[in-house]
Amino acid sequence: QLQLVESGGGLVQPGGSLRLSCAASGLTLDFYAIGWFRQAPGKEREGVSCISSSGGSTVYADSVKGRFSISRDNSQNTVYLQMNSLKPEDTAVYYCAAIPGSVCYDPIPDEYDYWGQGTQVTVSS
Asked: Any residues with CB less than 8 A from the CB of 106 and at least 6 apart, and which?
């Protein structure tokens, strides 16, 4: 079964940057679109971004457009989320998730089948 493990979270000042990684094992990611999600305390899990199986198409939530960038390296079975110009409202646990198929139109949590354990991102001075 596909397993996902996130890493790269931590404490960063407003305006700073972090790169999150999502490493897969058990199955290759070639046949899966990948999404990034986040959940802040007391809030519902929300979609941040998704990327097609080949990496040729990406989608971003309006709140992160121009600041975050999703990418993947299928040869390494890894996906990334580069986060720049971070804001306090970006503070959350960040999760990666996989859905069978080639494309993604919107990162909707209920549609994704495989999830990592999450990594904490805290943006604070």
From this structure: 47, 50, 59
Phi, psi of 29 (to 5 degrees): -85, 0
Query: What is the Cα–Cα distance from 11 to 44, expressed in whole angstroms?
Result: 22
Please report the sign of the dihedral spanned by the C-alpha atoms of residue 4, residue 23, residue 10, residue 88: negative
Name the nearest CA neighbour of 27 among 99, 88, 110: 99
pLDDT band at 24 (very low <50, low <70, confident <90, very high): very high
Judging by DSSP bridges, how do beta strands 114-115 and 10-12 pair with one another? unpaired
Residue 62 identity (one-letter amino acid): D
Which of left, alpha, beta for 110 (phi over 0: left; psi -120 to 50: alpha)? alpha
